[in-house]
Amino acid sequence: MLRSFSSRLFAKANRASLSARTLSTTASLSKQAASGSSDAIKITLPDTSFKMYHAEAPSLEMETNKEELIEMYTQMATIRRIEMASDGLYKSKKIRGFCHLSTGEEAVAVGMEHAITPDDHIITSYRCHGYTWLRGASIKSILAELMGRADGVSKGKGGSMHMFAHNFYGGNGIVGAQVSLGAGIAFSQKYLGHPSTTLALYGDGAANQGQVFEAFNMAKLWDLPVIFLCENNKYGMGTSAERSSASTEYYKRGDYIPGIHVNGMDIFAVKQAVAWAKDWTVSGKGPLVMEVATYRYGGHSMSDPGTTYRTREEIQNVRSTSDPISHLKKVIVDLGVATEADLKEIDKQAKKAVDDAQKEAEQSPEPNLDEFWTDIYLPGTEPKSIRGREPTVVHHYH
Fold first, then answer.
1. Cβ-based neighbour number of residue 372 at 10 Å
2. Of 324, 291, 295, nearest in space to 310 by CA
3. For residue range 205-226, what is the model confidence (pLDDT) as tens digits?
């Protein structure tokens, strides 16, 4: 539904016969007619988009088009709606346990996905709902998983922190553990000779983990095609980066590995940086450390109100000045690609798609108890029996 609507809106934008345009994503809009009927849109990023460590910066000039802009907006609006639905389900006690939302960080996931292909690999921590959807899981399967239902993307057995999709390896609950796993995924791609990159994501709260630096070392020794991407949302649980880290320049943490700092609230900066980083890693130059500066509007998890260690004024200031969806909306409207009414219709369609998926997910049954014994071993490799939580409970495979 969402994709068909955005396609119709793209066709409408095409009928407007817009010529190529040049845009600075923070400066005033300047429209320059170009020869021919190309619908390419040129973007000039602000000088503050990147900070570099032992590498030359990506170009500040990039191109997009009307169809991609509408798709980006649709995807960010949908991810925000998924998180809003998750928030409501948790508060109504239909989601239990841990639940970490990414509201405010949508530009990271969407910008990244637009810079890579389905053949590239992603592994992240527990703030993973948007990535799971972008990698191909349905909204229904994500919400069902959150509620522990059989139609969940992990059959209702993983919950918020353990979701998987095509070339997407979770959703990992152990802080920082996914970084070394990401290095392993990159090793397999290099070993097999696949021209793909691996993005191993972690938060600023995990940046001081010893296993992160061990993964850095192994990746550089073998020049693995991996991008170590630190999503710096300023707070590791309830502790600010300044209170937890002697150095908050996470993009320099690789020492012998080049790094880049990116404005993660600007979807264009994220896309350009990740595209540049992919080219770097697959060309044989080895790994990169990327710090993406972003911000979460909610608490660390649903059990954290998020206002005991920062002020409401701070949160509202970021919302009003740096919101990634509002930023992209302004770009689209200023370019004449779509009107505010068009974008409100996308918002409406996103809400309906998520609402419909939520209703279906709530109708999904709980998993059969026999499912607790599946997906532990590869089929054919199971032992004769396995013990349950209680010593007296034993399941026999053969």
1. 13
2. 295
3. 999 999 999 999 999 999 999 9
